[in-house]
């Protein structure tokens, strides 16, 4: 027999877990972190283990663990699960609205707009406030019993929230979906294991819910938006859909907060266009907007034709994904020499735009996904400018396709391509490669760099072709005379361009550093470097240790900068830029000239040092504003490693904290 105090504690823990689950999943405003939540869950698990007779099916511990079933049982839906008529434009919508007005014999009626979630329709039945069944839509009349799988979805309440108005039996309906990030992770993992990829999040959700072993479903991250009441027994229903939704939310269901009650067709149309944009920024896929008549008595009056209610319609978006033929894999060379493969596709409209090209990242990615020329491929445009290839449709492959291989020679200068171990990209290492020169100069003059107005892509490529420029400094050697010799270049535009070029000389140190196109050095890093070192010539001679001492610069970036200036050609460019009058100094004195070089950094020292005693080393760090602590954690900035280091050196490696030799510590602490 379980004791009463255990029961009280168990009830209390469950109530707290249910409350925090609701805050997290439904209100999207958690009050505690994951680890606090987990510690309550652990306590509950332990108590339940000691008191097995107190375990109930609606306990938050009982989401996972049902034994695998041999098949899904069939479920008859007491009320058919309907589908929706479609509208593809404002005209279709107006036709629907007119018909509704006619049937209702009024012109003005409130409607509710909500996102149409691209997932799987599910019916959830609760008896006396407890989840008893989750079923798929099936053919609308009969579906499959997927209760064990549904229980693993944390946003599905196992018990309704205590309220004065819980009906004895209720069925709610909603869409189970796989969040975009969960889908991307799942495919990533499948690709690594060499398994076939899921075509889209909807297939991901469907595949996960159709697992006979709910332990597998539990490992997939699924979520739900509840969008309707199915039926209700022994309870009263509100008067409008809006009220139903807020009631369901109070009962603990996850209701989409983007729901909007509107009065006119214009507002519907606005909602649809707003979503047409913002849908790309959500973590769930939507394929349209659903419009419903708000008043439930109007809904009843309008009724159903076939399987489609007259009181609702789906206003669709153009599809985000499509399948088309991959005609060819071509390769571009970027400004740092990286070979960028891309897909040339049989043109196809995706989300309202005709797509002809898509990115393919790198060779490894192409191999992992096994994308081959001649394949039919799934492409997706989910907000980014350039769409991506998700993967091949393997079923449609004939035997002719052969796996992709990066070219051995640069397609632009025929220099042998280098593939360094541990690096994803293949590179052309010829810095005179015309493709790289073009990309480098294009970047140099762009807004992210020297921002030379009037020097666009076409002109850069013409100037290169006519050998008027070969590298950055040559831009500053251009003259009006040289320019007006070119196609479609009048005296006026030549003079304007010369003016813009002249002005760019004073663009400022961080712009110059960003313009130089050092691998891994973007605008933010450039600003850090400018502040810390104060000039490009100073930057050319920094050590890796000095670079890594800057918060925000890691070993890869540091290595890349050092390597960049080990190259004589890159050093020469700086000399030449100085000669033509580009300002390579900061206007103000860099902050490194203060004593507090280690301000904000935490050090750990381990092992025997040569020129320092332990306390001297600590003094050296503290004098410069640094902190010294005894153990390595994620907050540690550096571990100084001497001879015969202790376990702290291992901790540093495990947590990927940069280490310093004694010599590097001295260099870092030196004033310049
Ligand atoms: S209402 C009659 N609301 O779309 C009402 N459905 O094409 C039936 N869906 O089977 C559904 N989001 O699976 C409704 N906000 C939403 C929805 C939604 C997605 C799905 C649902 C339905 C299908 C119809």
Put the structure in a nutshell.
With 672 residues, the chain is of the alpha+beta class. It has six domains: 4-55, Orthogonal Bundle (Helix Hairpins); 85-316, DNA ligase/mRNA capping enzyme (D-amino Acid Aminotransferase, Chain A, domain 1, 2-Layer Sandwich); 321-408, Nucleic acid-binding proteins (OB fold (Dihydrolipoamide Acetyltransferase, E2P)), CATH 2.40.50.140; 434-504, DNA polymerase, domain 1 (Orthogonal Bundle); 509-579, 5' to 3' exonuclease, C-terminal subdomain (DNA polymerase, domain 1, Orthogonal Bundle), CATH 1.10.150; 592-671, Rossmann fold.
Give your account of this protein's structure:
With 672 residues, this protein is of the alpha+beta class. It folds into 6 domains: 4-55, Helix Hairpins, CATH 1.10.287; 85-316, D-amino Acid Aminotransferase, Chain A, domain 1, CATH 3.30.470; 321-408, Beta Barrel (OB fold (Dihydrolipoamide Acetyltransferase, E2P)); 434-504, Orthogonal Bundle (DNA polymerase, domain 1); 509-579, Orthogonal Bundle (DNA polymerase, domain 1), CATH 1.10.150.20; 592-671, BRCT domain (Rossmann fold, 3-Layer(aba) Sandwich). 37% of the residues lie in helices and 19% in strands. A 5-stranded mixed β-sheet has the order 2-13-10-3-9. α12 crosses α13 (457-465) and α17 (509-515) crosses α18 (523-533). The protein starts with a helix and ends with a helix. The structure holds 2-(butylsulfanyl)adenosine.
